Amino acid sequence: MSSAPALMEAGPTEDLVIRIDIPVMQMRMRPGEKLIDKLDAVEDTKGNNGDRGQLLVTNLRIIWHSHTMIRVNLSIGYNCVLNITTKTAQSKIRGTVEALYVLTKCNNTRFEFIFTNLVPGSPRLFTTVIAVHRAYETSKMYRELKLRGALINNKQLRLLPQEQIYDQIFGAWNLSSDQGNLGTFFVTNVRVVWHANMNESFNVSIPYLQIKSVKVRESKFGLALVIESSVQSGGYVLGFRIDPVEKLHEACKEIQSLHRVYSACPIFGIEYESEEAPQDLDVMTVEPVQDDVEIENTNDQSDAFAAYFADGNKERDRDAVYSEELGLAIEKLRDGFTLEGLWEVTT
Fold first, then answer.
1. How many helices (H) and strands (E) are present in the chain, helices listed first?
2. Taking the model in full, what pTM does it have?
3. Which candidate, 54, 95, 119, places its Cα nearest to that of 279?
4. pLDDT tens, position by position, 273-302
5. Which of 198, 260, 196, 251 is nearest to 227 (CA)?
């Protein structure tokens, strides 16, 4: 059996996760991540009300950290975002003000984040975050494995912005069925694409970001190019036969080489130009700002997550009870919650 070395599968990228109170190293830009905007006076109104901080908008995530204590921070991946809206909120620094509400879901749990721009009259917080998230949503072909998509037009690959074709291989058989399907293989700088010659809608697009390994190995059809995708993309194992054998090995080496180049500097496809472009952050720096606000810190990670928890998964409303504190009927609180505690979280 002839085989090529497997490629190393990278862990989840920053756009796929939500992290709270992470080490400074995890706040720095990863390869391919670009800083789009930087706002130096933003309050995390839900979790750290009254605390000035810095908000960084990258092409993969939103990062917020406190000016007074950098270990108090957030990293919100765009893939976790369900909705972004603007509503009024109560800020300890600015009072009643228009704020940015970000509803997210990670590991089947919903979290809500509220950010307030402490610079009066500046719309940058709203315009930048909303526009960059929209750019992320419309560029998924760079990052997600796609089956039977609108990839081909008149036998030609629909190129993405920044995409270049490096090789086009005719006579490539897809081995997903017993008889195989004859098609054409495209190798670009961001992905590999195959489509059937008789049916262009029978196709697959595999971004390098989702490739776990590329090998040449034996199959019932003889030697085949085998591409295994990452677990998060479904863990597909796709086989292709390319004749002659020399061309098969050349294609395997070419894909492995382009994958290594891509891994060193990934192209995620999110493009946005800020009117006030920030300077690149080679080193995370924090300038302490003193406020007349007492900030209570905790080492309990579950408490930090609880501050942003959005109670949106209940199947029905809880029973109504009379609140002596408020003098009206309210929904019965969850076990372990108090009105005072909820008021501290939401205000």
1. 4, 20
2. 0.78
3. 54
4. 766 545 444 434 444 444 444 434 444 455
5. 251
Could you tell me the two tokens for 313?
């998964």
Q: Is the Cβ–Cβ distance between 112 and 104 less than 8 Å?
A: yes
Q: Would you state the structure tokens that stand for residue 209, as one six-digit string?
A: 């970001």
Q: List, in order, residues 6 or more apart from 30 with CB less than 8 Å away.
A: 13, 14, 60
Contacts of 229 (CB under 8 A, 6+ apart): 145, 206, 210, 211, 212, 235, 236, 237, 238
Cα 61 from chain centroid?
A: 6
The pLDDT score that the predictor gives to residue 343 is 57
Residues 26-51 have pLDDT tens digits of: 999 999 999 999 999 999 999 999 99
Residue 3: both structure tokens together? 């085989």
Residues 6+ away with beta carbon under 8 Å from 224: 175, 216, 217, 218, 239, 240, 241, 248
Q: What is the mean pLDDT of the chain?
A: 85
